[in-house]
């Protein structure tokens, strides 16, 4: 594969992968305005974020078998069309319940892009290059939290929060066009696969019983769910606890994203000397230490705005190292069932992310303690899962 084609494929796959994160991040600065317009509270608006996470979680389980049965492009095109229709619906919502439902549908559409792009990495690139490709995708995805909240804040101020969904609609259309015209079909449809419930569940079971899959998929999902707690909790922490403006929040969010992006690219360098499993262990251990410090400082109320930013920067940097390696290690044992494995991995990640953000929404307090606590608990659980199951993987490989 030529360097030019390599770059072009990564760009398209990265754009597809970024659709979900961009859909999450861009409307965050508008939470207070949305709450005022829909006659509710900022905490209640956060439920629409949870509904998005839940939609992605369940939707990925739907698309996994479809991607293996019909190839990658047809289910992907269906999902993008659904995303576009839901985005149009969001332009006309007048109640919070309407927004919650449509965001869930929008998520089901966007997760087709997420599952397909991950599966296509397994299809199009050698196994030994998977972690590097995922790191490059993290670079593309990382641009979304840098641009989305900042752009969303200005769009909301200048044109109102509904205009954010006009932008998301445009992104959906662009991804649909690039998929139809420029993305190759990377997988020959397997017509032997049944879409009946029992065979589908049997296929999922074959993936789930693989020790390397459930260890690294669950470890990565737990570690990454702290990011969802950060995304859901950061509007309240920065704009209400530290009284940061809407524009200021967008810039802080972008600044913190540099940690995620930079670490994901550092990962490619580290892979020349260290194995993915070594990087994951060190990164998650560091993540645990940072979150425990955050909990202690938040409880004692001793951290100011910039100290909080520094801790979150380190936390996101750890995720930049963890995520591409756990993704590559989770999918490594699979070729035939890559679509189902990708779906299960994504569903686990989004399901735990939805749970983390939902737990956070239960706390109606102007404090960073709930966000820090959820981040710490998920990080500790990730480390426990990893350390308890590594021996099973070693035994199986031997």
TrEMBL record:
Broad class of the protein's primary localization: membrane
Positions of the Major facilitator superfamily (MFS) profile domain: 9-391
A Pfam family it matches: MFS_1
PROSITE patterns for this protein: MFS
Domain of life: Bacteria
Gene3D superfamilies found in the cross-reference section: Multidrug resistance protein D (1.20.1720.10)
One Gene Ontology term, aspect cellular component: plasma membrane
Claim: 4Fe-4S is one of the keywords in the record: no
Membrane spanning residue stretches: 45-64, 76-94, 100-121, 133-155, 161-183, 213-233, 248-267, 279-303, 309-331, 343-363, 369-388
Biological process per Gene Ontology, one example term: xenobiotic detoxification by transmembrane export across the plasma membrane
Subcellular location: Cell membrane
Keyword annotations: Cell membrane, Membrane, Transmembrane, Transmembrane helix, Transport
Recorded topology in the membrane: Multi-pass membrane protein
GO molecular function: sodium:proton antiporter activity; xenobiotic transmembrane transporter activity
NCBIfam families xrefs: efflux_Bcr_CflA
Family to which the UniProt record says this protein belongs: Belongs to the major facilitator superfamily. Bcr/CmlA family.
Full protein name: DHA1 family bicyclomycin/chloramphenicol resistance-like MFS transporter
Lineage: Bacteria, Pseudomonadati, Bacteroidota, Sphingobacteriia, Sphingobacteriales
